[in-house]
Write a structure and sequence with these properties.
This protein is α+β, with helices and mostly antiparallel strands and about 500 residues long. It has eight helices and 27 strands. The chain has helices spanning about 5-15, 115-130, 200-210, 240-250, 305, 360-365, 410-415, 470, and strands at about 75, 100-105, 135-140, 150-155, 175, 180-185, 190, 200, 260-265, 275-280, 285-290, 295, 300, 315-325, 325-335, 335-340, 345, 360, 375-380, 385-390, 390-395, 400, 410, 430-435, 440-445, 445-450, 465-470. The strands form six sheets. A six-stranded mixed sheet has the order 1-5-6-4-2-3. Strand 21 (about 390-395) and strand 22 (about 400) form a beta hairpin. Helix 2 packs across helix 3. The protein starts with 6 loop residues before the first helix and ends in a 17-residue tail after the last helix. The model is unreliable at about 1-90 (pLDDT under 50). The structure holds calcium ion (2 copies) and zinc ion (2 copies). One calcium ion binds near residues 258, 316, 317 and 374. One zinc ion binds near residues 158, 159, 161, 174 and 182.
Length: about 500
């Protein structure tokens, strides 16, 4: 090995040992990934702390904010001492995508119910799995040696650990890179949104960050910043956290069943049209926040909870027929299609015209038979374009029949702008993005954007060279099914 200290090693060497009170603030790591922003030179003033303004008699006295310094030790899993030798530097990342964790039965907190502890820890793991291709599974049955991350609470001498905890204050927890997490139960751990005590969620997210290989980041908004800031209700990874963990584990990739902008009238102000972008994959979906270029916090969600009355997985296509006198939202699967009742937010069983759903595609669209790969509605031409295999078929909404001359080869209608760079056949999704004012073609983990507008060099409906989907839309990540959110849209 080089004998060079990496940041984590340096941090571990500078950190105080567990059980040895030391008021020195751990040295802040300079992270190179983010634009330099305000640096943390002091911990927040106690007067800004809502905890301190309250007279707490039953709960342990909250610590003054000036002492709310996050202290923990990071160690290599199989070593006792924080000092790492340089010739056996461990690889700093899990090399498998599925990671198992367990809250130790001998290490429950006295502050929260067991169910609360488990659900908070699950949420903390989930927060990381929302941005990297890792899944975390709570495993309460496998033999201990198969559990990657064991978590427990304890005070003083605890859990057979060689490092003593230091009572209330200073050290809150310690974590081993690629290993376990111990929480100092002399701290008053509380659920998120509590205005007193120490948020277990916040501490857990931070410690899991260390286990996954992150060091401290000197940014107020980062969950990896070294000073504990009293819990605020919104607990999110900021951009720097996301990029840092993705530098270790990469971006999430995967193919989608359907992608679309859901355009509908705003229920709170009729007459106003709004849209949200959705990505469907099997039985899950994400809502994408275009403005912040990321998915909504706590996505993915379960399709059947968010889109009632539709098939609960593998939707082939979405079509929004939108003319002056028609506004129909349709979902396709197999040989059938469903009409969605935007107002009541569920699929129609019987629509206002008296049609009963699901209907056969061939009944609603003479000349078209399912299954289809994908479809989209072109507002200008008032055609629905159905894709299947190598072919595309235009269906005129006004004439209620297939446009003469179709089906055609996809590549003839939407040629490649660069030789050989074309999806050819078996598309996953095609959708018009209101945000980008462009049509995108999805296949596998790639996306092709239609040129659009006027360009002399290439036909206006040519497809630009492909890019990975994850470059265009960030952080669309699977989570372990046990952690799926079930709240409605
Ligand atoms: Ca402590
Ligand atoms: Ca599809
Ligand atoms: Zn310990
Ligand atoms: Zn830390």
């Amino acid at each position: 090995m080089t004998g060079e200290l990496d940041d984590a090693t340096r941090e571990a060497m500078n950190a105080p040992r567990c059980g040895v009170p030391d008021r020195k603030v751990p040295e802040l790591e300079k992270s190179d990934d983010i634009n330099p922003t305000e640096s943390v030179t002091s911990v927040p003033d106690g007067s800004e702390d809502p905890d301190d303004s309250q007279d707490v008699t039953t709960a342990p006295h909250p610590m003054p904010a000036s002492e709310r310094i996050w202290r923990e030790l990071m160690k290599n899993k199989k070593r006792d001492r924080p000092q790492l030798s340089h010739n056996q530097e461990p690889k700093g990342a899990f090399s498998k995508p599925k990671i198992k964790w367990r809250l130790l039965g001998e290490g429950y907190s006295v502050w929260l119910s067991i169910e609360q502890q488990r659900s908070i820890l699950m949420r903390a793991f989930r927060i990381w799995s929302e941005v990297v291709p890792l899944s975390f599974e709570e495993d309460v049955t496998s033999p201990a040696h198969l559990i990657d991350i064991k978590l427990g609470f304890g005070t003083g001498r605890h859990l057979g650990c060689s490092q003593l905890f230091d009572g209330m204050g200073r050290e809150f927890a310690h974590a081993w890179r690629l290993g376990d997490i111990h929480f100092d139960d002399d701290e008053h751990f509380v659920p998120p949104n509590s205005d007193q005590g120490i948020s277990l969620l916040k501490v857990a997210v931070h410690e899991i960050g260390h286990v996954l290989g992150l060091s401290h980041m000197n940014q107020m908004t980062s969950v990896m910043q070294p000073n504990y800031i009293p819990a605020n209700s919104r607990m999110e990874l900021d951009r720097a956290d996301r990029r840092a963990i993705q530098r270790i584990y990469g971006q999430c990739t995967g193919r989608f069943s359907t992608v679309f902008d859901w355009v509908h009238q705003d229920r709170s102000s009729p007459g106003t049209w709004v849209f949200q972008t959705y990505f469907f994959r099997r039985s899950w979906y994400w809502m994408y926040e275009n403005r912040s270029n990321r998915t909504r916090y706590r996505d993915p969600r379960v399709l059947s909870h968010g889109w009632r009355g539709l098939p609960d997985s593998d939707i082939d296509a979405y079509v929004h027929i939108w003319t002056r006198d028609m506004d129909r939202t349709l979902f396709f699967k197999g040989t059938q299609y469903w009409r969605y009742d935007n107002e009541n937010d569920r699929a129609f069983v019987r629509d206002p015209e008296g049609y009963v759903y699901p209907r056969l595609i061939s009944e609603g669209f003479p000349g078209i038979s399912g299954p289809i790969d994908t479809a989209f509605y072109d507002r200008k031409e008032r055609n629905i374009y159905f894709f299947r295999g190598r072919n595309i078929t235009a269906f005129s909404v006004d004439n209620h029949k297939v446009v003469p001359g179709y089906p055609k080869a996809i590549i003839d209608v939407f040629p490649a702008s660069a030789d050989g760079d074309h999806p050819q056949s078996d598309l996953d999704a095609v959708y018009y993005s209101f945000t980008h004012q462009s049509i995108f073609f999805f296949k596998d983990i790639y996306v092709w954007r239609m040129v659009g507008g006027q360009q002399d060099s290439v036909p206006h409906n040519a497809l630009l060279p492909r890019v990975p989907i994850s470059e265009q839309w960030s952080d669309i990540c699977d989570v372990h099914p046990s952690m799926l959110s079930t709240p409605r849209r």
